[in-house]
Amino acid sequence: MNILITGNLGYVGPVVARHLRLAHPKARLIGFDSAFFALSTTGTTVLPERFLDEQHFGDIREIPERLLEGVDAVVHLAAVSNDPMGKQFEPVTGDINFHASVNLGRCASKAGVSHFVFASSCSVYGFAPGAARKETDPLNPQTAYARSKVNTEMGLAAINDPRMIVTCLRFATACGMSDRLRLDLVLNDFVASALALGEIVVLSDGSPWRPLIDVRDMARAIDWAATRDASDGDAFLALNVGSADGNYQVKDLACAVAARVEGVGVNINRSATPDTRSYKVDFSRFAARAREYQPQCSLMDSIQGLVDGLRRMAFADKDFRNSPYVRLKLLEAHIAAGNLTPDLRWSKLTRP
Ligand SMILES: NC(=O)c1ccc[n+]([C@@H]2O[C@H](COP(=O)([O-])OP(=O)(O)OC[C@H]3O[C@@H](n4cnc5c(N)ncnc54)[C@H](O)[C@@H]3O)[C@@H](O)[C@H]2O)c1
After folding, report:
1. Alpha carbons 11 and 345: distance in angstroms, whole number
2. Closest ligand 1 atom number to CA of residue 327
3. Rounded distance, CA 60 to CA 49, Å?
4. Positive or negative, the Cα torsion across 296, 302, 303, 309?
5. Which residue, among 119, 122, 153, 148, has the nearest Cα to 282 in the 3D structure?
6. Residue owning the nearest CA to atom 12 of ligand 1
7. Residue 347 C-alpha to ligand 1 middle, in angstroms?
8. Pocket lined around ligand 1, Cβ cut-off 6 Å
9. Residue nearest (by alpha carbon) to ligand 1 atom 23
10. How many CB atoms lie within 10 A of CB 19?
11. Given a cut of 90, is residue 270 above it in pLDDT?
């Protein structure tokens, strides 16, 4: 089996590559990434990409079609990947996350790829008070990032190639340790805050609901989608990926981290304007369809993994919200240094 993983040099990618290598020892694993965050490793002494057979560098907006020759499954992770980045780079988010993703789907169909896995997001439900959202509920994306995920799902559905099994995994918010860490995710931020500041500063009023999934469980779901059988008729599937007990209020996450790290208090900004991104999600369809690939990491497993990983790095950066582990900050620094253009392309070398 040949598997192409786009965006493999991000936060989720290294965990996915490791999982796929263990699950499919004989598979040929191919990475493709623009390498924006390639140097954001977490003290690992070996390259996370050692589990791959090939690593290609390039821009998904100009994916070389030859890369898809002989590929059985595409795992499409490459994206401008959160709300603040989507806000800062709105047109580029549409170009990369939507247009380039649907184009990749078309190229994959043309090349005879049998499985196409798209990393979508539960943020497609947006502000969704009340009952947990099912796949059949209306979508209500609040941000450029969430809209790009909705548009891509629709674009992939329209390809409508009965030979290509397309699975859009609407992931809960990711958490947990990775060889390329992100600290702009709610649980990761809280653990970093606890260790570096000795307190957890919650920027919102703590009331929003957020479903969480550990990166290791994302990799399990991707493995399912890259190999699933569509004999029951669903060649195209969009489904929520997380666990039944994985919906939390932000303030409860802060308290769970505080309970794990001794001497840490929780500081909630009660006067913050309400966060419009609040949703509970129903994961029963994923539970029924992917029985052998269900999430296995508890909230405490994720917190413990982060505490251990950050302590291994001797993490103590009080200003971590401005550090390279916050993706927007790293992209802004690359642009300020002239390494990246404002439309997120590597600058060409010019003679001095
Ligand atoms: N982290 C989460 O909470 C979460 C939740 C749901 C879904 N997702 C989705 O999962 C996927 C992976 O997320 P992540 O957290 O690893 O993101 P990330 O930002 O850490 O990594 C994304 C990778 O895509 C690459 N990339 C971006 N633009 C590119 C381009 N034009 N060409 C080639 N490569 C490009 C980047 O270099 C980076 O390595 C994304 O599609 C994201 O939207 C993430």
Report:
1. 20
2. 19
3. 19
4. positive
5. 122
6. 77
7. 20
8. 7, 9-13, 33-37, 59-61, 77-81, 96, 119, 121, 171, 173-174, 182, 185, 327
9. 7
10. 19
11. no
- Nearest ligand 1 atom to alpha carbon 178: 16
- Reported pTM: 0.96
The CB-side HSE value for 198 (13 A sphere, CA atoms) comes to 1
Instruction: Count CA within 13 A, CB hemisphere, residue 278.
Output: 16
Pairwise CA distance, residues 128 & 143, whole Å: 14
Separation of alpha carbons 51 and 116, rounded Å: 21
Q: Residue 122 is encoded by which pair of tokens? A: 């539960």
Identify whether the C-beta of residue 200 lies closer than 8 Å to the C-beta of residue 267. Answer: yes
* 208-262 confidence digits (pLDDT tens): 899 999 999 999 999 999 999 987 679 999 999 999 899 999 999 999 999 999 8
> Measured in angstroms, how far is the CA atom of residue 8 from the centroid of ligand 1?
8
C-beta of residue 88 within 8 angstroms of C-beta of residue 143: no
Asked if 228 contacts 269 with a C-beta cutoff of 8 angstroms, the reply is no
What digits encode the pLDDT tens for the residues 28-60? Answer: 999 999 999 999 999 888 999 999 999 999 999
The answer for 241, left when phi > 0, alpha when psi is -120 to 50, beta otherwise, is beta
